[in-house]
Input
Amino acid sequence: MNQVLLLSIVLLPLLGGVLLALMRRAEKRAADTAFLSVLALEAAAVTAYLCLPDATVRLFSMTDALTVSLASDGISRVFLAVGAYGFLLSGVYATRYMARGERQASFYGWMLFSLGALCGMDLSQNLITMYLFFEAATLLSMPLVLHDRTEESIRAALKYLFYSIAGAFLALLAIFVLGRFTTTLDFAAGGTLTADAAAHRTLLEIVVFLGVIGFGAKAGLYPLHGWLPTAHPVAPAPASAALSGIIAKAGVLAILRLVFYIVGADFLRGTWVQIAWMSLALLTVFMGSMMAYREDLFKKRLAYSSVSQISYVLVGLFTLTPSGVTGGILHVIFHACIKICLFLVAGSVIVNLEKTRVSDLVGVGKQMPITLFSFTIASLGLIGIPPASGFVSKWYLALGALDTGIPVLNWLVPIVLLVSALLTAGYLLPITIRGFFPGKDFSAPPKTDEGTAVMWLPIAILGAASLLLGVCSGPLVDWIFTLVAPLV
Output
C-alpha cells in the first residue's frame, strides 16, 4: 500500500499534465475541472502519506551501483506537504487568474508536470534519482515563465534555463567525485563518506563547495541568483507563487540532502567551506533585501525579497547546528505560505486594478480590503514580528548562528537578519499604510473590487496560516527537531 502511494504521488500530477496537454482545445470549464481534480487528489494522497510509515520503491537500475528509487522519510514529508498544499491553493486561484488570457490548459499542464518532478525529487532515495528529477523540474517549470510568449518572457525563460543548467553542471561534478569517496549514494543521516575520504579532504571540500553553489542556483544563492528577479515579473502570478514558494525550494532540498545525507555535517563543520557558504548566504540576504527596498515594480520587489528570504533558509542549513537547521526547515514552510500569499496578492492587483507598480497602490485597501489585510498579515510574518510565523524561524536561525562558535559570523548573522528585517518592513509596510490610509486628497472608489472568492479566498487562507503557524508552532518545532537530531 505504501509503495503504491509513493508511486501515485509522483505519477498522478505527471499523468494529469498529459491529460491537460490532450485537452488544449477543450472548453475552459473542462480544463479547470480536470486541473483542480488532479490537485485535490494529489493533496489527498500526500495527506494519506503523512500518516503512513516509510516505504521504498525501486523504479529501475542503470547499473548495479546506479539505481533510480523512491523512498520516504521525515524531510520528504515536509517538502511534499509544502508542495501539494501550495500548488492546490495556487491552482484554485489560477482558474480565475488565467481566465483573462489564452492557453489555460497548457499552463495547467506545465504546473502539474512541475509538481510531479518536485514530488519525485522530494521522494528520491539517492543522489542520482534526485539529480534526474532536479533537472526535470527545471525543464518542466521553464514553460511557466515562457507562458505569455513575449520577447521579455522568452529572455527570462532562457535566463532561468541557463542559470539552472550551469548550476546543475557544478552539482554533477560534485556527484561524480563523491561517487568515488562514498560507500553509497543512497541518502543516510550523517553522510556516507568512506574511511579514506579524510585523506582527500581538499579535493572533497572544493567539489562539495561547488556542488552547493550549483544547487544553490535554483534557490537564488549568490552569484547564481540573477534569474529570479528576471523571471518573476513576466510569469503569471500563480507561476511566480509556485516558483518562489515551492520550486526554488528544490535547491534548498538538494543542498540539504548533499550536505547532511551524503557528506555529513561533521566533515564540514568549522572548515573554510562552511565559512564561505555562510558568507555568501548572508551577502544574498542583505543584497536581496536592499534591492527589494529600491524596486518599484511590485512583482519584481517580491522577487528580490525571495532572493533574500530563501537565503535565510540556507544560512540556517550552513550553521550545521540543531537550532539553525531547525530554523531553516521551519522557514521553508513559513516562507512558502507567506510568499505564495504575497504573489497572489500582486496578481489580484494586476487583474482587478491593472496596477503593477508599488507607487500606484495608493488607496488600494479601499478597493481590496480583504486582499490587502491578508497581505499585511503575511508581511508581518515575513518581517518576523511576533507572534507571526517568521519570528519563530528567525529566532532559531539566530540561535543556530550563535551556537556555531565561528568568530565574527556567530554575531554577524543575527545582525544581518535584523537589518534585513528592517529593510523588509521598509519595502512591505508602506504598501499597507498607503493602501489603507491614502490621505485626504484621495478619492475613494465607488465600490470594492476584490474579484471572485476563487481569488481572494486562497489569499485569505494563506494570510491566516502565516499567523496561525506562528501562534501554534510548538508541535511543529518539536517534530522538526526530531528530524534534525540525527543530521547534526
Q: What stands out?
A: Residues 322-353 form the longest helix (32 residues). Residues 83 and 246 are 6 Å apart (CA to CA). Strands lie at 56-61, 67-71. DSSP finds 20 helices and two strands in the chain.
